[in-house]
Amino acid sequence: MQLTGKVAVVTGAGRGLGQAYARALAAAGAAVVVNDLDLDLAEETVAAIRAAGGTAVAEGSAVGSTEAAEAIVATAVEQFGRLDVMVTNAGVLRDRSLLKMEDPDFDLVVETHLRGTFTCGRAAARQFKEQGGGGRLILIGSPAGQRASFGQTGYTASKAGIVGLTRTWAAELQRSGTTVNAVIPVALTRMVATIPALAELVEKAERGEPIPADVRAGGLGTSDDVAPLVVFLASDEAAGITGQAIGAGGDRIAIWSHPTEVVAEVREGGWSADALAEAFPTTFAPHLQDFQQLSQDSGK
What we know:
alpha/beta, globular
């Protein structure tokens, strides 16, 4: 698959999943702006891309503010003349359960993940419009935003919000030819190394050792296993795909469903509390959703 002539931005691309996305986009022929708060890491990623024959520049803004988003997009335009793909990957973790969560930690996570996705997505969409339409917004979600993830109050709120943005922006930007999709990655990165069951596998992945076949079949692999989905969604071949949340991990690709009603009942004159108490055990209770599906393999 070729992305020759396209220009892409990947935020938070100094290491892990973001780095894998940036390298894969460059390998497919795109010129890439490698953003990371740690400019040294961004420069290392750029050096690796150039050593492999690709084209890239580093950018060191801290994702979140409007000014940072506009600076990142401006770098793409100044260096390469345009922008075709925005991958909003940057994020941080401050894991705490509700009763232990402090305001600054919550605010930092939401500022980086959710507000950063909003500001970078808006800046990119404005540039797409100025260029005459088209473009690809690839927003990075997480299984933690799709189901319960104990101890990740700010992270789950942000990642669920990002998938909500995906659906809304897909509707708003469809006429212009811009596609908007969320990638739900599952990968053995440093961010999941704190999960006891995955720590050993993360160490194997960092050493370059093969991941067991049963683990890969279950949807858990390396960052490089997720990157091809990003390349595909950035391509002309994906022009008809928008508004989707697509999971990727190991040997597995999955489409996540959109929320929908599972049962609905109409009662003439409305529902009183007593009527609800009478109807709930038989009419509604059998359809209550399982909220305890913990995201133990979250790709973050």
